[in-house]
Amino acid sequence: MKIHGGIFAAKLVIIGGIKLIMTILSFSY
Question: Where does the sequence pass through the membrane (predicted)?
Fold first, then answer.
């Protein structure tokens, strides 16, 4: 369960990071 939870958390971090990068790029243009 701990490992599965870690993978789930990592996915949330990756998705959040992508959204953050997309937001910064949209403001750059």
Answer: 7-27
